[in-house]
Amino acid sequence: MYVPDPLGPGFEQRHLPQPPDYEGPVRAVLVRQQPLPAASRAVLYVHGFNDYFFQREMAEQYAAHGFRFYALDLRKYGRALLPHQRPNNVRDLAEYFSDLDAALTVIRQEGAREVVLSGHSTGGLIAALYAHSRPAAGLAALVLNSPFLDLNQPRLKKLAVPLLTKLGAVWPNIPVPAGLPDTYGQSLHRAYRGHWDYDLAWKPNRVFAVNAGWLRAIRKAHQQVRRGLQIAAPILVLHSDRTAWGRAWSDDFRRSDIVLNVAHIRKLAPRLGPHVTAHAVAGGLHDLFLSVPEVRAEAYRAVFGWLEKVLPADTGASAI
Predict the structure, then answer these.
(1) CA-wise closest residue to 229 among 149, 143, 133
(2) Is 63 helix (H, G, I), strand (E, B) or coil?
(3) Taking the domains of the chain in order of start, what are their residue ranges?
(4) Most CB atoms within 10 A, among 144, 153, 265, 314?
(5) Which tens digits make up the pLDDT trace of 133-180?
(6) pTM of this prediction?
(7) How far apart are CA 215 and CA 152, in angstroms?
(8) Computed from CA positions of residues 147, 89, 7, 129, in that sequence, does the dihedral angle turn out positive or negative?
(9) What digits encode the pLDDT tens for the residues 68-127?
(10) Which fold has domain 3-152+218-310?
């Protein structure tokens, strides 16, 4: 069922077919690190917008701390993107819930008893909505890395977004400018100003186009967060300590969030549930785990220190 993954030795993938949607056949792709440690704990990582899983270091860190590591490429992203599909084309974020259901079923079949759900940016928003809507999933904890809880385009948000959101209910395929410069991608990929190597076809510097249906789905999710979610599991919300913005390159972009407004994350994080811990990581990028080494180290210390406090002692399990 698993086949070799493009990440190479130590990683393999499994297709998770889903019922067809308005574009045709659909799948998600589950990636796991091998060998699985003899542990009853696992983490499932969900990538962000214009993204897919490629962070080997993250998998190694979780394995070193006694977790089985899995990552999910959601439908219409990365490994899961099919030729007939438009990247990230979705009309309701609940469409991703069946992808998560399928992944969690496999993870538990393979021996995990405690599962931590981790998400970055849009993946963090999806993870939060899933945990709220699926209390029976029995998630042990959530780790959210710069979750996308609000838009960071104040003018668009006040003027164009309400209209486009309404149009998205009737004409979901109307193109909408994503509003993100390519400077974030430049700060990451080693071919430009960064240090990471990943597939630019799956995570391009100039982000994939979106449509009014996608924007409507995002804004509906943001409204849910504003009203307040009831996630019973403990939640760790990580974010940078500051936001920067600009279309021309600045070295400040190497140590700040240039995608989201961290003030929005701080304000809205307590609305996710009754057990939220927020932690600012000084000098962090939008994806904290792609920051410079000392910042990543601090982010990992925060994650595993917090998990040690909120999870019971692991009694171990047989690896499969």
Answers:
(1) 133
(2) helix
(3) 3-152+218-310
(4) 144
(5) 999 999 999 999 999 999 987 666 667 888 888 889 999 999 987 767
(6) 0.96
(7) 13
(8) positive
(9) 999 999 999 999 999 999 999 999 999 999 999 999 999 999 999 999 999 999 999 999
(10) Rossmann fold (3.40.50)
